[in-house]
Amino acid sequence: MTVPAPAAFASSPEVSFEDRMATTEFRVAPDAHIVVDGDSCRGCTTQECVTACPAGLFVPISGGGILFNYEQCFECGTCYLVCNTKGAITWRYPEGGAGVVYRRS
Amino acid sequence: MPEPRPPAAPEFDVVVVGAGPAGSAAAVQLARAGCSVCLLERGPAPGSKNLFGGVVYPKVLDDLVPEWREEAPLERWVTRRATMILTDTQALSIDFRSTAWGQAPYNGATVLRPVFDAWLASQAEAAGAVLLTSTTAVGLLRNGSGGVAGVRTDRPDGDLPAKAVVACDGVNAFLAKEAGCAVPSKPSHYTLGVKEVLALPAGEIERRFGLGTREGADFEILGGTGGVAGGGFVYTNRDTLSVGLVLSLPALAASKCRPEEILAGLKQHPAIAPLVVGADLVEYGAHLIPEAGVGMMPRLATEGMVIAGDAAGMCLASGLWLEGVNFAIASGAAAGAVVADAVAVGDVSGRRLEKAYRKRLGEGFVLADLERLKRAPQLALSERLQHRYPQVICNLVEEMFTVTNPHPKPRLLALARAERARAGIRWRDLASDGWASVRTFL
To answer: Over chain B, what HEC string results?
Structure first.
């Protein structure tokens, strides 16, 4: 009888990004706390916000520029810190009581 | 909603912005010293905006809340601490256990921030502070000489005039920036923490991690970050795991790798997958960590305002030691005590506040630890430590324990030389990194 080679450990499948974001509670404020200046973004080739925003809020659009939403923001501040284009991202905290609500972190 | 306040007469001596560990510690000290205190929190409850890896070192609370061992909502006492070095296919662990850490006076404990922070804020309320939630401080009020004289909130009629402000508003430090306190502003001054909370029954956690009831594990990971400078962690809570990454912001931005994909890679690593398999994601989140170090620390006070916690960069992200909540509590308590004294004598000048605050911080561990480990973040995120040494070390251990029969065992020194050469590490870099490690950590 031969001992078979060990099989690799079967890890769990990853959830979709949408399901991942749905695990966290967001109380959406009526006003956006992120403002993106579309003109500044059109010429941006590096698009650091697209890569680094952990909530994936910044989406490149074909022909240049960025589409963004503010609803599922972790309020970390990554986007404005990594942005190379001065004035492109204006970011503040959402109004009191709104935004992300961690419960189990 | 509070009643609208007349703008001229301060209802509170001091406004503390942010009911995280720094703010609540400050509010406890201020209230106990007899100040009237408003503790502002922008979330619906304290801790609802806060996320960290998972371990606090609560001995810092001995003076502030002596009964913390019985009362604080802790998940598990950390009795097992492992440092793991991962390559794509290998893992080397230094795995330490101590029963002493599971007994008084204890060492580290895992906590959930929405629970722990709410408990600490309740201590401030018990001391007499007024907690005002769901209220964002949007700016500073100034007196005639330009000193800080309270905060503007986003409530209707939301000005909160005060004799002094303690800004514990977190890593983005908007109030310190508005006051011109030279807050570090480069991406390289920050790392991004991303974290998954994964549900697993308590008994299953104890079986997988080899723990007793209420014992906890703290795994720190070098490597496993998909080539992006940073590290990983796995912590055990009572019936969840916290699994996450700390990533250099500039490295992440340049990588074109998404954080959740890097984390998925870590969870699939053969050394990590058996720990997390089958555990369902119940919360995902992210938070920035200040890493600029003591050399880039902002100005800590200005007329009428003192800064504490993450807002002041008081966080020890040194690779070997990862501490923040204890630094926040200690700095917040120091800020509270200093501001209480200043309000009592009616002198909240920036000079007095900064001098007294630095003196007080200098008497404890906060500035001493930050000063001693000031080179650590740079060393921990350096290219060789991140990308070359893990591979060299793991290969060396693999070759050491791979039996090469019929050939005799190679000499270890010969193996080390060959691995060094294969990784393209120069002797002088090895020597300089060795010296830097000695200088940084010993």
So the answer is: CCCCCCCCCCCCCEEEECCCHHHHHHHHHHHHCCCCEEEECCCCCCCCCCCCCCEECHHHHCCCCCCHHHHCCCCEEEEEEEEEEECCCCEEEEEEECHHHHCCCCCCEECCHHHHHHHHHHHHHHHCCEEECCCCEEEEEECCCCCEEEEEECCCCCEEECCEEEECCCCCCHHHHHCCCCCCCCHHHEEEEEEEEEECCHHHHHHHHCCCCCEEEEEEEECCCCCCCEEEEEEECCCEEEEEEEEEHHHHHHHCCCHHHHHHHHHHCCCCHHHHCCCEEEEEEEEEEECCCHHHCCCCEECCEEECHHHHCCCEECCCCEECHHHHHHHHHHHHHHHHHHHHHCCCCHHHHHHHHHHHHHHCCHHHHHHHCCCHHHHHCCHHHHHHHHHHHHHHHHHHHCCCCCCCCCCHHHHHHHHHHHCCCCHHHHHHHHHHHHHHHC
The answer to whether B393 and B92 are in contact (CB under 8 A) is yes
Distance from CA of A79 to the nearest CA of B (A): 10
- What is the average per-residue pLDDT within B144-173? 96
- Give the pLDDT band (50/70/90) at residue B6: very low
In B, residues 175-204, which contact A (CB 8 Å cutoff)?
A: 185-187, 190, 192, 194-195, 197
- Quick one: CA dihedral A78, A79, A80, A81, positive or negative? positive
Rounded average pLDDT over B67-95: 97
Q: Quick check: B132 pLDDT over 50?
A: yes
Question: Across residues A13-29, what is the average pLDDT?
Answer: 96
Determine the pLDDT at residue B388: 92
pLDDT at res. B9: 60
What is the mean pLDDT of the segment spanning B328-336? 98
Per-residue pLDDT for B7 more than 70?
Answer: no
B318 touches chain A (CB under 8 A): no
Q: Which of B49, B113, B233 to mutate to test the interface with A (most CBs of A within 10 A)?
A: B49
Which residue does chain B place closest to A48, by CA atoms? B253
Best probe of the A interface among B131, B247, B262, B281, by most A CBs < 10 A, is: B281
Q: Distance (Å, rounded) from C-alpha B337 to C-alpha B334?
A: 5
Global pTM value = 0.96
pLDDT over 90 at B320, yes or no = no
* pLDDT, position A37: 92
3-state secondary structure B297-313: CCCCEECCEEECHHHHC
pLDDT at residue B8, as a whole number? 53
Between CA A80 and CA A44 the distance in angstroms is 14
Residues A57-100: pLDDT tens digits?
Answer: 999 998 888 999 999 999 999 999 999 998 899 999 999 999 99
Residue linked to tokens 């503010």:
A70
CA distance A45 to B253: 12
